[in-house]
Design brief:
alpha/beta; single chain; 3-methyl-2-oxobutanoate hydroxymethyltransferase activity; Pyrv_kinase-like_dom_sf; binds 3-methyl-2-oxobutanoic acid
């Protein structure tokens, strides 16, 4: 398993860090077998596997449940798990206790939190030994306010984002996920910070990249963002299921090759 200090050295040596989301045992197993450096149990699972319209409905229990499955599938990969909507910033004592619960019960190596307001939370987590990844730029939990569009499009907004990222690092963040921002800005932020910056829709000047498993494999995806590249195609699952359905209807499945052949009733004398 890559440790945080190894991820840091990868940045220093300009070796790119790969990250992919995974939400269950088989996807985590595949990610580990593919030697992906880090796995994110993203709250995008709300859309990709639970069928919600956004990440807003995802609960802490959902994240723990999926986080545990991912850990079982990828025991030797650095795993980051998302703190879901509404768990940070409401009450100091409560958010720390939720962070502890998520970190301890999911067995992840770090938790990830969205938004520029979280620096004090990062410090509190750091103080008790919970590594935190900060997610800035487009933060899907705030989709009701910012929508799904490129962020930091003006000089003023770009300067604010640079400052926000510095604040995260100062507060003790161990990595940053930067989503949907202009590539020259993402490159500048990556060069400014000492911690790894993992981009999604942020160009190739960051220290690493993250994509969503279902987008990469075209698995049940309804809309694809501009920055997604599809590397495989699981969409033929529908054709396979239709064929199964037909074969059951026609009685051609199961055939002899899928049937236990030991004869029992031939040896019994009929009444
Ligand atoms: O939840 C998620 O999958 C994410 C990625 C888009 C970075 O936060």
């Amino acid at each position: 398993m890559k440790t945080l200090s190894q991820l840091l050295s990868m940045k220093e040596q300009k070796e790119k860090i790969s990250m992919i989301t995974a939400y269950d045992y088989p996807s985590a197993k595949q990610a580990e077998a593919a030697s992906i450096d880090t796995i994110l149990v993203g709250d995008s699972l709300g859309m990709t596997v639970l069928g919600y319209d956004s990440t807003v409905e995802v609960t802490l229990e959902d994240m723990i449940h999926h986080g545990k499955a991912v850990r079982r599938g990828a025991p030797n990969t650095f795993v980051v798990v998302d703190m879901p909507f509404g768990t940070v910033g409401v009450s100091e004592s409560q958010d720390l206790s939720l962070a502890k619960q998520l970190y301890q019960q999911s067995h992840a190596n770090a938790i990830k939190v969205e938004g520029a307001h979280i620096a004090p939370f990062i410090s509190r987590c750091s103080n008790i030994g919970i590594p935190v990844v900060a997610h800035l730029g487009l933060t899907p939990q705030s989709v009701g306010i910012m929508g799904y569009k490129m962020q930091a499009a003006t000089l003023e907004a770009a300067e604010k984002l640079i400052q926000d990222c510095k604040n995260m690092e100062q507060a003790g963040a161990v990595m940053i996920v930067l989503e949907a921002v202009p590539s020259d800005l993402a490159q500048k932020i990556s060069a400014t910070l000492s911690i790894p910056v993992i981009g999604i829709g942020a160009g190739n000047g960051t220290d690493g990249q993250v994509l969503v498993y279902h987008d990469v494999l075209n698995y049940g995806v309804e809309r694809q963002a501009k920055f997604v590249k599809q590397y495989g195609d699981f969409s033929n699952g529908i054709a396979a299921l239709s064929q199964y359905h037909e074969e059951v209807k026609q009685g051609t499945f199961p055939s002899a090759e899928h049937t236990y052949k030991k004869k029992i009733w031939d040896e019994v004398t009929p009444d």
